[in-house]
Sequence to fold (149 residues):
Amino acid sequence: MDLGIKYTTTFENVTIDLAYYISSEGSWRGSSRDSARYSYDVVRWNLAVNPDGTVDFDAPTNGFRESHQLNARAWIPSVSLSYFHETANIPWLDSVTPYVEYSSIMKRAAGFNDSALFILGAAWARGGWYIYTDFAYSNGNYFVGDDGR
Fold:
């Protein structure tokens, strides 16, 4: 569970969610040395003060049994639009929710490139089951397939 604050309001048929999360959901231990999990989180904080007074800061992240370098300071604007549609005329499907999402990670430190993620998809529902189909494009996302550089 992520720690933060969320505000939700509805105007007619439009729901708006605004949220700010203070930190990750915690320091959990996985089966790997880098804390395997189905999310990306900081797994170690490394801070070193050099003899010349400069500071080296390192915050490796982990997700899906892999670890990566992470810029500790960034601004992450995002937008998501979806539409819930009941499918009364399709007996094997209760609803479909098409959605489009965009987010960007604007990094503050030198040596890190900004990245963006665009997703066009749908959630197909029947009973308590959901199937998600996504088309995802990114210019810096390890999970989607780019090397993050």
Summary: The mean pLDDT is 75.
